[in-house]
């Protein structure tokens, strides 16, 4: 039975969040093709994990057998989150752009599961090769050649953390753009482009969900 780890990080509820909405298309397709699969769901928008603190950070550099009682207690959450990440066959992450980068709640989750010598910085990285799908929504346009290309710190950051220099995941990015167009009069001429981008994102998410579910159903 395959396991999907689904992470949402938008501060907005489903009806107001494009990242949640598009990620839901992936999950719906995954569950339809793989109804017996397990889904581990963490909603960092409504139930955030705490930011990484000193004892838990230090414990990540110490072998578990050598943890002090304080380190062992502090490392429990890191171990729980990391174990969820490791046991998943596929990972789905909703990563909306806030102030040019990922939500702080998603960064906090990453800080917990980036464990040196375990999930990263190790020849035997425990999550390497897993397929990851990231829904990286953003209110404007930040693609190559756009005026704000240099302001894009979502894909540039996540590619380093999730990719070969970090976890070693096989990551695919789905990027619905211009999500603020319908509610911003100054972006009125971009509404059609925004709708097309969102529709393409839903289609890509559904296809990706079906394909990965089919892979793990065999």
UniProtKB/TrEMBL annotation:
Which Gene3D superfamilies does UniProt cross-reference here?
3.40.50.360
- Cofactor binding remark: Binds 1 FMN per subunit.
Q: Identify the EC number(s).
A: 1.6.5.-, 1.7.1.17
Q: Which reaction does it catalyse?
A: N,N-dimethyl-1,4-phenylenediamine + anthranilate + 2 NAD(+) = 2-(4-dimethylaminophenyl)diazenylbenzoate + 2 NADH + 2 H(+); 2 a quinone + NADH + H(+) = 2 a 1,4-benzosemiquinone + NAD(+)
Q: Which residues form the Flavodoxin-like fold domain?
A: 3-167
- InterPro entries the UniProt entry points to: Flavodoxin_fold (IPR003680), Flavoprotein-like_sf (IPR029039), FMN-dep_NADH:Q_OxRdtase_AzoR1 (IPR050104), NADH:quinone_OxRdtase_FMN_depd (IPR023048)
Cofactor needs: FMN
Q: Does the keyword Flavoprotein apply?
A: yes
Q: Which domain of life is it from?
A: Bacteria
Matching entries from PANTHER family are given as: FMN-DEPENDENT NADH-AZOREDUCTASE 1, FMN-DEPENDENT NADH:QUINONE OXIDOREDUCTASE
The family classification in the record reads:
Belongs to the azoreductase type 1 family.
Q: Which HAMAP family match?
A: Azoreductase_type1
User: Which named protein is this?
Assistant: FMN dependent NADH:quinone oxidoreductase
Q: Which organism is it from?
A: Streptomyces tubbatahanensis
Q: Which gene encodes it?
A: azoR
